[in-house]
Each structure stands twice: as C-alpha cells, then as structure tokens.
Amino acid sequence: MRLPFIVAAALVALACSWAEEIPHAFEKEIQAFETSDRTNPPPRNAILFVGSSSIRMWRTLAQDLPKYRVINRGFGGSQISNAIHFAERIVFPYQPPVIVMYSGGNDLNAGKSAETVFNDFKAFVSKVRTRLPQTQIVYISVAPNPARWAQIDRIREANRMIHDYTRKEAGLSFIDVHPHMLGDDGKPKPNIYLKDNLHMNTNGYVIWTKVVGDHLKSLPAADAARR
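Now predict its structure.
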C-alpha cells in the first residue's frame, strides 16, 4: 500500500529538517563524489550502496562483489536524513536498479527514537519512489557492535519496524546481519571489529560479502547490474 502523496511529502520534509540543522556537515564529501563522477564516470546500471561509515569503509566492495557493477556512496557519520537531503546529488544521477542502504545506527546514537529511524527510512523510500519507481531498495539492518551494545534494544526495535515494513511494500527487502555477527553467547563476535569496537575489520566484511551477495542473487532487479 502506497502512502498518500501529502503524507509522503510530510515525511520527507520532516526527515530533511534533521539534515538541514547542519547543512554543510557533509558538503565536502558530496562534492568529492561529484568531482569523481566527472573525472571517472561511474558505471551505468550499477547497484548503489549508500549510507554511513560501514558503507564508506567497504573499500573492497567492487572486488567482493565481482559479478555486479557497484557504486559506493557511503559517507561516515551520516544519518538517513542526510541520504534524503543529498539524494538529488548521490542517488538520482545514477538511476540504479538496486539501492542498498546501511544507515540508522548514527541516528539512534544521536538520540533519535527507533520510530524516528523507521519514519526516516519510509521518507527515503518515498523520495526515491518519486523519481525511480522501479528501483529495488534493500535495507541492511543496523548491526550489533560492542561500542553501542547499550542501545541494542532500540536497534532491534528499529530493525523490527523496518523489516515489517519491507515485507508489506513491493520493491523493498531487508537483510538481517545479526545472526551472522553474533556469537553463541548472543553478543557481537569479538574478532570482526576494529579497535574502536564500532567499525568492522576484514573479518566483518567477509560476513557482509556473503550475506549481501546471497541476497542480491535472489533479486531479479540485480540482474541488470551483472557484469
């Protein structure tokens, strides 16, 4: 069921207001993407990965998913509202058949509620749908990590709401990374994080490569991005 236009527009406006509180916070990163696009044009019909530092730091993305053309537009510290705010510059120009988003953890860490994160994701979907109605949107669950383990209840609640939403809306899907990143004790595996206990090391990205790669194989829309 699609949101009425007025409601969808209100959601987008509300989410964007968060980004506009610090409008120039990511301007240098966005300009760097635009410069790269001019000097080294990205591939057409590529899967767009967008979101926060876990996407930005996935430097081996193209090598890890060699069967697909990919574009990495992650910028560290960003929230879902920032992806909405900059969509005109780092989403729409690529016209991707699939968007893979990892974002929401910084939002929760900044004090936003799980419901706000959920509403911001819906606003992102609504904005994408206005220009790219056929694009498949994949959400990677906010990951568990030792540095923010105290927030795990809100993380799980945000993931639950987004997962439920993606199951009801066409063109959306959800990747739950938790079962793969937690040990038998139910806590984050200790060997998959950098010293900050927040960002993943190579071992963590090995897990994501497998999980994300398997999910893309199940998406007909991703076939358009195959090499």
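The chain has one domain: 5-225.
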